[in-house]
Write a structure and sequence with these properties.
Helix content is 45%, strand content 11%. The chain has helices at residues 9-15, 21-33, 40-47, 51-59, 79-87, and strands spanning 37-38, 68-71, 74-78. The longest helix is centred in the N-terminal third of the chain and has 13 residues, at 21-33.
């Protein structure tokens, strides 16, 4: 399996275009069985925030209520925790129906 990190949806589609159903299931299983973890600096960089803000939110339980701590200065958060945290910032805007496009 090639590295999918940072790839667009279209790039992923191209990478897996010629894969069989069994190969695709193997990829899905491997991704689902061992979840990727991110360091606070990686989360901050990918989210356009300061590391200090990310650390404060980790300690406040905003990443799904859990993080992994291997040592005092080694924290990681699961990809699903990062996604839950980022969803909390999402703002949905209703489409304008007044006909004024400009």
């Amino acid at each position: 399996m090639s590295d999918l990190t940072g790839k667009s949806r279209e790039q992923i589609e191209c990478a897996f275009r010629d894969k069989t159903r069994a190969e695709l299931i193997d990829v899905i299983f491997s991704l689902a069985s061992v979840e990727q973890h991110f360091k606070p600096a990686e989360i901050a960089s990918r989210s356009g925030m300061k590391k200090r803000t990310v650390l404060a939110d980790i300690h406040a339980g905003k990443f799904g209520g859990e993080y992994y701590k291997r040592a005092d200065n080694q924290l990681t958060v699961s990809a699903s925790g990062v996604n839950a945290w980022r969803r909390s910032f999402r703002v949905r805007v209703a489409a304008s129906t007044d006909g004024d496009a400009g």
